[in-house]
Amino acid sequence: KTPPFISSEIKFMLGQEFDEKSLDGATVMSVVTRVGNKLTQIQHGDKEVKIVREVSG
Question: Domain of life of the organism in this record (predicted)?
Fold first, then answer.
């Protein structure tokens, strides 16, 4: 059985830590940085999660 699609929206300032609810419902601290065309988000909670997004256009 395929789980339902989940989407989320966050608002942030680059380089500033902020509180966020992760997709699994946990409360984490996140920070997003930009290098070139890549946004890197680090979530600090029970474990550290690194999300890299590449922006084009």
Answer: Eukaryota
pLDDT at residue 4, as a whole number: 80
Given a contact cutoff of 8 angstroms between Cβ atoms, the answer to whether 37 and 54 are in contact is: yes
The DSSP letter of residue 25 is: S
Q: Is residue 10 part of a domain?
A: no
CB atoms within 10 A of CB 30: 19
Query: Rounded to an integer, what distance in angstroms lies between the CA atom of residue 8 and that of residue 24?
Result: 11
Task: Tell me which residue range forms the domain holding 35.
Answer: 16-54
**pLDDT tens readout for residues 34-44:** 999 999 999 99
